[in-house]
TrEMBL record:
It comes from Deefgea piscis. Residues 121-146 are annotated as: Disordered. SUPFAM superfamilies: lambda repressor-like DNA-binding domains (SSF47413). It comes from the Bacteria. This is Helix-turn-helix domain-containing protein.
Length: 168
């Protein structure tokens, strides 16, 4: 299926979802869903596409472009928890608006790496002696904390400046 409207219709029919619940899940108006189905809208922004795909249980890549399979192994699980999805959407907005610097991206990456390793920036992993912890490969937690605070402030400012809009 080459057209977004065809993919939307097929996914809605396959999932049994109606326009109003899809609009609610995708955080758009019912009118926007109608425009998707009629072909007036040719592309969806990334965050809206992900929300719509999750609501219909289809692959976001397939929904956006028609590439790949309609259903993938990943579509059985949501892309993120409801608590994390707004953070992902805010990060996508920052990136698309070019309001995030490479330094800020690096700070986020360091912070996420630390969380994924279940350690803090300046603490060794459980069962690892402090002398074995690669301190030369990490930065002081105060520096990372300041960067995270700066990023959080910038995200908050962007959120206030660009309050979430209903998009098509």
């Amino acid at each position: 299926m080459s057209l977004l409207s065809e993919r939307i219709k097929a996914a809605m029919q396959a999932s049994g979802i109606k326009s109003a619940p899809l609009a609610n899940a995708a955080k758009v108006t019912a009118s926007a869903v109608s425009q998707w189905r009629s072909g007036l809208v040719k592309n969806l922004d990334a965050a809206t596409c992900i929300r719509a795909a999750n609501a219909m249980g289809v692959s976001p890549l397939w929904l956006a472009s028609g590439e790949g399979q309609m259903y993938s192994a990943d579509t059985t699980k949501p892309i993120a928890s409801p608590a994390v999805m707004p953070l992902i959407e805010r990060l996508i907005r920052l990136d698309l608006d070019q309001n995030i610097t490479p330094k800020e991206i690096a700070a986020l990456s360091t912070f996420i790496d630390a969380i994924s390793q279940k350690t803090t920036i300046d603490q060794p992993a459980p069962g690892t002696a402090p002398s074995q912890f690669p301190t030369d490969a990490t930065r002081p937690s105060e520096e990372c904390a300041q960067e995270v605070n700066d990023i959080s402030e910038k995200i908050s400012q962007l959120g206030q400046k660009n309050a979430p809009k209903k998009s098509a």
